[in-house]
Amino acid sequence: MTHPLEQLRDEALREIDSASDGQALETARIKYLGKSGSISAWGEQMRTLGKDEKPIVGKLLNEVRNAVSAALESRAANFRSQMESEALGKMDVSLPGTPHEIGALHPLTQMWQRSIEIFRRMGFALADGPDIEDEWQCFDALNTPPEHPARNEQDTFYLPDGRLLRTHTSTVQIRTMQAAPPPIRVIAPGAAYRRDELDATHSPQFHQIEGLYVDENVSVADLKGALEFFMRELFGAGTEVQFRPHYFPFTEPSLEIYVKSKALKSGERWIEVAGSGIVHPAVFEAVNKARGDKAYDPEKWTGYAFGLGMDRLAMILFDIPDIRLFAQNDLRFLRQFA
After folding, report:
1. Mean pLDDT on 229-235
2. Element containing residue 29 per DSSP (H, E)
3. Does 107 sit behind a cis peptide bond, omega within 30 degrees of 0 on the bond before it?
4. Is the pTM of this model over 0.85?
5. Superfamily of 107-337 according to CATH
6. Which strand (E) or helix (H) includes residue 170?
7. How far, in Å, CA of 292 to CA of 312, rounded?
């Protein structure tokens, strides 16, 4: 003899199969599996069944509920598939698609990548450090005296706790020497910050690549060889490079670097592009004190350091008249470098 639940299942399956649309299918779902539905009502009746009958009816109820649920899902999937087919059938594939503009690397990013690739070919590894530093990392370790103008609040962004936004990425050179003994050969790309008025050639945030090479018997000749190679790879084989004496507290001797190249759109003339020099022994002594050893004995180790302004190099190489263009996100400007 057929159980009433089985009869209810067959009735529900016939109604689901004959449903003409999604609304009819939802009506059938509510009728059988809704809170007050016929199948759901059997769940309420379970408490009135005898001890022997309850497991038999309970098992059958689960089977009926699962069968009806599966039928509902299958029929709903058929309706969805049908709707998608009808929508695709109305689509005119001959119409042109919606164009998507393909982005390009920012000119500063292009400058970063070109510069890093050249230095990597010379054996330099990448090093990184925090943008927020303390005075020791930014000034004291780099032999910058307390009265130096760079330490003035008019020139440097100080935080309430005494820390500051690094004024150069030379801080990464100090951190690298603290972390590892010589020899080392690293470049430190990153942002730096100074209290400059924003105009065509100055910005309170700018970008640098600073380099450091420490080994035995490193000389000015090594420094000149590396930077001449870099400048000629960047500006062209015919680029002339000139080194002029200068002063930096963390190098001795110190040199400014000038280039003259036919690649410059503004004309072939001498342009200052970087600062460099032989690492001052006082810098090595400060690092030794922080490390608690004599790993960087200035009697044994020498090194050179340099700093390149990415914004300035990009402005020179791409003939960009205003540094503010890098941050304005003007597509008319950026598309020139796509």
Report:
1. 93
2. helix 22-33
3. no
4. no
5. Bira Bifunctional Protein; Domain 2 (3.30.930.10)
6. helix 170-179
7. 38
